[in-house]
Specification:
This protein is about 35% helix and about 40% strand. The protein is an alpha+beta fold. α1 (about 15-30) packs across α2 (about 80-100).
């Protein structure tokens, strides 16, 4: 948990969970990000929702800095490098704006691509 001095009256504590939630919501708003990945042991991929918005996000919050690791699924056909760069920008902006913490690094691990139903059927048809 990060503690930021407010003034002589006290301080502000920002929990890791708060930063993870902000990062998860910012990820959902990034075009090209289909889902966050909870890892192979968590049924491969689950979409973010209000109750599991932190899935696929881990953070380390210090006194004035934060480091964020993400596991994501990218929409098939999108340029992965561009999507992930925009993801990093969106998360850095959101976390810094809402918490005042300096985001020192955002590591993105792309764990797969996401297909719509028609694309998935075509892939299955071709692979037979």
């Amino acid at each position: 948990m990060a503690e930021k001095p407010l003034n002589k009256q006290g301080g502000i504590l920002i929990s890791d969970d708060v930063v993870a939630t902000i990062a998860g919501l910012a990820a959902l708003e990034t075009p090209g990000i289909a889902a966050m990945s909870g890892g192979l042991s968590d049924d491969w991929v689950k979409m973010l929702s209000g109750k599991n918005v932190q899935k696929g996000v881990s953070v380390e919050v210090g006194e004035v800095e934060a480091a964020i690791d993400l596991r994501v699924m990218v929409v098939y056909g999108m340029k992965i490098q561009e999507v992930c760069h925009q993801l990093q920008v969106n998360i850095r902006d959101a976390v810094q704006r809402m918490t005042g913490l300096c985001v020192v690094e955002i590591n993105v691990r792309v764990e797969g691509g996401s297909f719509n139903d028609e694309e998935l059927k075509e892939i299955q048809r071709i692979s037979k």
